[in-house]
Amino acid sequence: MIRPALYLQDAHPITEAIEFAQYAENRGFDAVWQADSRLVREASVPMAAFAAMTKRIKIGSGVIDVWTRNPARLASMFATLDDLAPNRILCGLGAWWDPLAAKVGISRRRPLKVMREVVEVVRALLANETVTFNGEFVQLDGVELDYVYQERQPKNVPIYIGATGMKMMELTGEIADGVVLNYLVSPDYNARAMEALEQGAARSGRSVDQIDRPQLVVCSVHEDRKVALDMARNMVAQYLGQQPHIMEASGVPKSLLESVGQVLTWPATHEQVEAAAKLVPDEIVQMLTASGTPDDAREAVAGYIANGCTSPVLYPLGDVRATIDAFAGWDGNA
User: Fold this and answer.
1) Same structural domain for residues 94 and 240?
2) 20: number of CA atoms within 13 Å, CB side?
3) What is the pLDDT of residues 207-224, one digit of tens each?
4) By CB atoms within 10 Å of each CB, which of 75, 124, 130, 180 scores lowest?
């Protein structure tokens, strides 16, 4: 049975997000993933809150960038979270995005190289190894997670990569335990992603079936289909303008990307998002999200599962509990 998961960014106070995580756990959800959300909400604090206030549900970072934290500190952070919720923590890493990275002085040079180095080092440190590494981006000299007051043992923290481009997808298939497939992509995009994952997995002697494939899915549920589509439209417009590389990979017409890009970029005002949303037709909203009535949303999510997703990570717009209820007990394979 494929069980859904919940995705949270910064739309709600952390105290309310804790309640959503508890509700999702009680309704049988498999995991809650917290975004490192722009420059608004750092992921590890709410992750710790969710971990402390739940008992079973897994807690993932969806995703934390590999540029702004030293990999030894990344490993220490995830080891600490595992201490709080043993065997429930999922380490999701990503290569970040421009223009945000550039605006804070980060040059995302050779993202494949830095991702390979960071994953190798973080995995080794979590495995309780002493690491010496002289890479292009990562340099460690006899570093270990120097436990003094707890048992020294490997941490069971699987590493996921948030991949969008096909080269990063291949690398993920080669070196990661799982991939966090992006939201606002079409199911057809998943077919290309699965091919790239398979090619990467083959390089390390694995099958793509050995790679977990949770996927973020924007989900707007309402009994009135028009209301649901309108709730999702602003979100789609924002990403058309701010992350056109994702949108183009999903088959969004370049003319629409250019039109939206003339209206907004990062950071965007609410007025800019509203203006851009007027340019986005219903068919684009439906292509990139699971929006509509509960039946519409479940059918759309099933399309992602049919194209390789192993766990739909629902990013609810509107009523979070209603979205959780719409998928509680639902088996996407049925």
Assistant:
1) no
2) 30
3) 999 999 999 999 999 999
4) 130
